[in-house]
């Protein structure tokens, strides 16, 4: 070997090494800064498919992931918290970049979310809040104001009956879910301002059509004929079931018994357009796409998002129902 060329070779290889290291470190930095460059992997622990709204949320979660180049690992918990805990642990083991969790109930999350935090995996709550003294366990919660939803429904009813005496029955959602106590609370707050409104019965219909129908049948049997003036259901699917029960009892839903529910799914707009329902409070189904955008921004800027990202709660009545049905029927 020509000894004179050795120092030059060394310098060259140092340079190559230097460039290589810079490229490698740059790549690492890019990976840390915005995982979107390599494509994020997100785990989503979904509650199940109890309602049309839930199905829409799942559909938009898949679509939104695809549009953003995100790999979505989806797990359906079939309404069971233990399945959600297993799913979150499995996402942690797989090393996902983030976890979306729609918590079926509000309590019992601290341990598993602590494990996600220890693994540096941000968790975003979707559509339901959790009870925890340690809000650092999740990055943010994308939900509606579930107390306000109840208030919107109650205010609408108070305005609709205009001082007339009104016996109301309530069909609640899944026991133990954060939003169920809130939807009840908000509704009760709103009707408390009207002494003519009386909440006479309340029972869980578990957010499903079949159970909503069964509960309404029970109410109609238990109450004197013609004495129920209105039904408030915590979601539209239970209301669709209740409407069926009212029809089978020989009454006209929307006229003999007023209806107000929550979600804004296509079938309730159809029922409103047909004169069988009176009002719904919309719950935005695009919670996951909103969460993806929060996550991408967070990975880029490192600025923590607000602890609660609130989605709107808009009231719809029959005047726009046909148009809303046409607009939504294929989206869900
Ligand atoms: O958490 C949102 C609620 O869950 C929806 O209002 C209901 O339809 C769903 O099952």
Automatic annotation (TrEMBL):
**PROSITE patterns recorded:** PROKAR_LIPOPROTEIN
Q: Could you tell me which InterPro entries the record lists for this protein? A: Peripla_BP_I (IPR028082), SBP_2_dom (IPR025997), YtfQ_transport (IPR054837)
Instruction: Answer whether the UniProt record assigns the keyword NADP to this protein.
Output: no
Q: Which GO terms describe its molecular function?
A: carbohydrate binding
Keywords for the protein's UniProt record, in alphabetical order: Signal
Q: CDD domains recorded for this chain?
A: PBP1_galactofuranose_YtfQ-like
Please list the residue ranges annotated as the Periplasmic binding protein domain.
43-296
**Where is this gene product found?**
Cell envelope
- Please provide, in alphabetical order, the Gene Ontology terms of the cellular component aspect for this entry: cell envelope
- UniProt record similarity statement: Belongs to the bacterial solute-binding protein 2 family.
UniProt name for this protein: Monosaccharide ABC transporter substrate-binding protein (CUT2 family)
Native source organism of the sequence: Nitrospirillum amazonense
Q: What is the lineage of its organism?
A: Bacteria, Pseudomonadati, Pseudomonadota, Alphaproteobacteria, Rhodospirillales
